[in-house]
Predict the 3D structure of the following.
Amino acid sequence: SIFFSTASFLSFGYPISYSLLPPRNSILKFQITRWTTMVTQGVVELLVKMGYGGSIKDAGQAIGQSGDEGIDGIIKEDKLGLDLIYIQAKRWEAPVGRPELQKFVGALHGKRARKGVFITTSSFSQQAINYVNQVDPSIVLIDGERLVDLMIDYNLGVSVENSIEIKKIDSDYFVEE
């Protein structure tokens, strides 16, 4: 099923634009039920699409497995690799609490890391949010809803089925100098 996400209905020479998107809760349900072992790789792919690192091949790596010391992935902050961002990804239904964030901060300290991203398919407790706002290193929290929005924005897990192009006259083109 599809629904309208954004719409702007203007007339008199301005284009009419809209987006048809799958419902957010459907994408979230797919994440929780089907995005099992590849959740970390999917997160690395998303961050590359967002402009971090370079190509998937050399920008980052999914390392999440037993004995990963609390780090599921690493991605270069830029194409030159001047800094690294460490990733923790949780495919959970229950909210992520402060203890999980404390473990991640400990893992970041163990790597002497300055930046981390903690992503979950669920949400974060208020205690977890408050904790992250007062610790060093810098940690960005991405909950399931924001993850879905980013996946849609960067075409990860969704594909364009059809597009419509509306053209208008470019009057500047016809001006003689």
